[in-house]
Design goal:
It comes from Methanotorris igneus (strain DSM 5666 / JCM 11834 / Kol 5). One of its GO terms (molecular function) is dGTPase activity. This protein is α+β, with helices and mostly antiparallel strands. The protein has helices at 22-28, 31-34, 56-73, 78-87, 106-114, 124-131, 135-141, 147-160, 169-175, 194-212, 215-233, 247-255, 260-269, 287-294, 298-312, 342-345, 347-357, 371-381, 385-390, 398-406, 412-421, 426-439, and strands at residues 2-4, 7-12, 16-20, 176-181, 184-190, 275-281, 317-319, 332-335, 338-341, 361-366, 408-410, 442-449, 452-459. It has a four-stranded mixed beta sheet with strand order 4-5-8-9. The protein has a three-stranded antiparallel beta sheet with strand order 1-2-3. A three-stranded antiparallel beta sheet has the order 6-10-7. Helix 4 (78-87) packs across helix 6 (124-131). The termini are far apart. The mean pLDDT is 92.
Length: 463
């Protein structure tokens, strides 16, 4: 840390000098922020990219810096935005998103920690409201084009050494503006910034298969998840303890255990990883099969793993990634005072959307020393193995039942109202809707009416 002209500055390889206020320094020195120094930003990606040892700590500083610059440009509350951005990741478990398992939610943990902290100029509620994406400050940190995403793409690209996460940050900063919709301020991008936002889309699209969803990283992450689940079953620690542990604590505990978790940790240490025996690409699965798989909770996955393991005669792990959210495609572009969705005015954005969906796939992994033993069984039913085990699982969806009744529903608000009449919450509605659209069970059609967009929904049929 450098002290210059009575201001404290942190040197950063991405943003160079990051100045910090007196209160920000106090927060940086808390145990909750210092803990992030020992939590890797990209989980076990360092097994593929050896330099990917950067942490949540420097990402938090970088997000704070970008968020503050955007807040100043948009006349938002700069101090509130910076403080919230600095704290937005304090709830992460060891190895970041890898261990968001068994109900662990890093955002809820962060809010609980914030309630116990002391602030000079803001209440706990004001900071948590921003963390909940309320107000202009909340949209700056987490939105369609946000500080969090811009920092991690730049930072992860730099530390992995790949050339795919580069974005035109200065151009985005010059093009970002606010506009009013239904009495609320929202964030948009001027026409001159279209190519800069496209660079964000391209960066994310290329970073996911190359870094975030690299096959080897996914296998290692799956092994670590199962090791922690075994440790939880053996009561070595509780799920809530992950909020206070860092990577070092966790690795030490797993290495010094005596159960299955120890074996898996040893394999990770020796980089003796499971091997992928089957891959199901998006197009290999029917919409129904996709829905069944992404709707499984952890217990369902474990039970399916047990059935596959019994059939093959060895431990089998199943890797079902979450479906892509693709928030950037909803960015509002302002041209001659008129508003458009990015994928409406950008052929590139429109073409990337289906391509990004098709990056999703499901992996089945087995121990490397058991491949010869299971070769014969795999050759008999390799492509149909998983399909056979899930073919009798029914599709359960309230929204699908509603669509069957109405055939077509005009307007997302109308759909939400009907869903609420069926007992669904708003959160449950959006979660289920996005999954159905992703799987191909429901068609989403966007109609522009005046200055707003209407989302219409209908049933997609499949064989």
């Amino acid at each position: 840390m450098i002290v210059s002209n009575n201001k404290k500055v942190i040197r950063d390889p991405i943003h160079k000098d990051i100045p910090l206020s007196h209160e920000e320094i106090k927060l940086v020195d808390t145990i909750d922020l210092q803990r992030l120094r020992n939590i890797k930003q990209t989980g076990l990606t360092y097994l593929v990219y050896p330099s990917a040892n950067h942490t949540r700590f420097e990402h938090s500083l970088g997000t704070m810096y970008i968020a503050g610059e955007i807040a100043e440009k948009l006349n938002a509350d700069v101090e509130l935005t910076r403080i919230t951005a600095l704290l937005h990741d304090i709830g992460h478990p060891p190895f970041s998103h890898t261990l968001e398992i068994c109900g662990y939610d890093h955002e809820q943990v962060a809010k609980a920690k914030i309630k116990k902290m002391e602030f000079e100029n803001y209440s706990h509620k004001e900071i948590i409201d921003v963390l909940n994406k309320k107000g202009l400050e909340g949209k700056i940190i987490s939105g369609d084009v946000d500080a969090d995403r811009m920092d991690y793409l730049l930072r992860d690209s730099y530390h992995t050494g790949v050339a795919y996460g580069l974005i035109d940050l200065p151009r985005i900063m010059r093009s970002i503006v606010t506009y009013e919709e239904m009495g609320k301020l929202r964030i948009g991008i001027l026409e001159k910034g279209i190519h800069a936002v496209e660079s964000l889309l391209i960066a994310r699209h290329q970073m996911y298969p190359t870094v975030y969803m690299h096959p080897t990283s996914r296998i290692a992450d799956t092994m670590l998840k199962r090791a922690v689940m075994y440790a939880l079953e053996d009561k070595l620690f509780g799920i809530n303890d992950l909020a206070y542990m860092d990577d070092i604590d966790l690795i030490y505990t797993l290495r010094n255990s005596e159960g299955e978790e120890n074996k898996l940790m040893k394999m990770i240490d020796e980089r003796r990883l499971f091997k992928k025996i089957i891959t199901y690409k998006y197009t290999d699965l029917t919409p129904r099969e996709r829905w069944v798989l992404i709707s499984m909770d952890e217990e369902d996955v474990r039970n399916l793993e047990k059935e596959l393991s019994e059939y093959l005669g060895t431990s089998v792990f199943l890797d079902i990634p979450d479906y892509p959210k693709m928030e950037e495609h909803s960015v509002t572009i302002i041209i001659d005072d008129k508003r458009y969705r990015l994928d409406e005015v950008s052929p590139l954005a429109k073409s990337l959307k289906p391509s990004e969906i098709r990056l999703w796939d499901v992996g089945v992994y087995a121990p490397p020393d058991k491949l010869k033993e299971i070769k014969e069984k795999l050759e008999i039913c390799k492509r149909d193995l998983l399909k056979e085990f899930i073919k009798d699982i029914p599709v359960k969806s309230t929204l699908l039942e509603i669509i069957e009744e109405y055939e077509i529903i005009k307007g997302r608000g109308t759909f939400l109202s009907i869903a609420k009449e069926h007992g669904m919450t708003e959160s449950e509605f959006f979660s289920e809707l996005h999954k159905l659209v992703f799987c191909g069970l429901i068609k989403e059609k966007i109609e522009k009416i005046g200055g707003i967009y209407r989302y219409d929904y209908s049933r997609l049929r499949y064989k």
